[in-house]
Amino acid sequence: MSIDTPSSLPAWIMPWPTFDVDWARAALVVIDYQNYSSNPDCGITQMLIKRHPTVAEYYVPRIRQSVANTSRLLDAFREMKREVIFTRHGALLPDGRDMIARRQQRDSDAREQSERPTLWPKGSREHQIVDQLAPLGYELVVDKNASSPFNGTGIDQILRNLELDTLVMAGMATDMCVETTARDAADRGYNVIVAEDAVATFFERHHIAALSAMARVYTKVWTTDRVLDELNE
User: Fold this and answer.
1) Which of 33, 204, 219, 222 makes an SS bond possible with 214, Cβ 3.0 to 4.6 Å?
2) R_g of the chain, CA atoms, integer Å
3) Residue 118 phi, psi dihedral angles, 5° rounding
4) Beta pairing partners, 143
5) Are residues 180 and 147 in contact, defined by beta-carbon separation less than 8 angstroms?
6) Sequence ranges of the domains in the chain
7) Is 117 exposed, middle or buried (0-12, 13-18, 19+ CB in 10 A)?
8) Average confidence score pLDDT of the chain
9) Among residues of the chain, what percentage have pLDDT more than 70?
10) Is the CB of residue 155 less than 8 Å from the CB of residue 142?
11) Confidence band (pLDDT; 50, 70, 90) for 164?
């Protein structure tokens, strides 16, 4: 068993997480690539372009790159007949009353400051997964009203029913829903691989910090190319 040392992350004095991957029991988990966050033509991205152009200058190219890499992963997992699972984040009820109180207040404050919420409810265009990564009819889509699908959905039981033990993660945002999901999965005994160039967040320093935290204890951090190479082998 080899020890991975992610070259793009800060050095670490303790062993990196190690595990062997049985690709027959691996799935791709695509986290929250929804129009509200990941479509440059609507949602949060439009607000950033208008109100925070310096943030948008980093984020827009980053989200385009990460969506493109996730598309490559999707194609490969589908071709190899491996499971693909999507998550969508947002209120399950139109008025958002199913969200925790802090989140409801945050959305209210966001509307006052930017005229846009930070999340959109199920059924809205913004809640839908971006067209480039649209799920196929036989692929599982898990709707969640919390950062991690392991908190408040039956995804853990579903993954075990599917006899999966390794989860390759792509998605948005690196330091929010991706990191929370990865940690939760690792704590439940899953092998987790985060595709570092198929995840994105708003600030590069937060992206690197989140990947570093996950790689030190919870996950392997690989490039999309490495995931594809290992899968094809």
Assistant:
1) 219
2) 17
3) -95, -15
4) 88
5) yes
6) 23-90+128-232
7) buried
8) 90
9) 88
10) yes
11) very high
- Separation of alpha carbons 160 and 72, rounded Å: 26
pLDDT at 179 (0 to 100): 98
Q: What is the pLDDT of residues 14-50, one digit of tens each?
A: 677 889 999 999 999 999 999 999 998 888 888 888 8
- Please tell me the distance from the alpha carbon of residue 217 to that of residue 17, in angstroms, as a whole number: 6
Residue 18 Cα distances to 130, 186, 219, 221, 230, angstroms: 33, 12, 8, 11, 15
The CATH code that applies to domain 23-90+128-232 is 3.40.50.850
Contact 45, 63 (CB under 8 A): yes
CB-based burial, 126-163: b 16+ in 10 Å, e otherwise = bbbbbeebebeeebbebbbbebbbbeebebeeebeeee
User: What's the rounded Cα separation, in Å, for the pair 214 and 122?
Assistant: 29
Work out the number of other CB atoms within 10 angstroms of the CB of residue 164: 20
Which DSSP string do the residues of 71-135 spell out, in sequence order? HHHHHHHHHTT-EEEEEEES-SSTT-TTS-HHHHHHHHHHHHHHSS-SS--TTSTTTSBPGGGPP
Q: Give the separation between CA 213 and CA 197, rounded to whole angstroms.
A: 16
CA distance 216 to 212: 6
Average pLDDT over residues 173-201: 97
Q: Which residues contact 94 (CB under 8 A, 6 or more apart)?
A: 121, 123
**Average pLDDT, integer, range 210-226:** 94
